[in-house]
Design brief:
Length: 131
Amino acid sequence: MMPRIILLFFGTTVLILAVRRMRTYRLKERHMLMFILTGLPFLALSIWPAALWWVSQRLHIDYHTISMLCIAAFLILMIFEMLTIISLQERKISTLAQIVGIMMEKDGITDRPRSGEADEEDRREDTPALF
């Protein structure tokens, strides 16, 4: 009975947190769906705790093995989704940095030193560091 309560608590907490974060932080719908899909397996297991046992009986696999496979699959899917989001954001940041660089070059704004200062800095960079 206690695992069922823990699963129910965890699942509802994740769902409530997703809705709350969407309102407070203006979370994108894609991220909210990820939170909801994260909470649903826990809610499903709290409603039907014998689901894993039923699956293990049908597949003739030990209950503990099927539990570990489910946990591993869940974690792999979550990591894959997070890495997808991170890579998309990284591409957007890179594109934005390139656009800013092009606009700064077009407007004559640069962070490069002037021609006289550049020679002096090049000489300093060529000198090997002692530490």
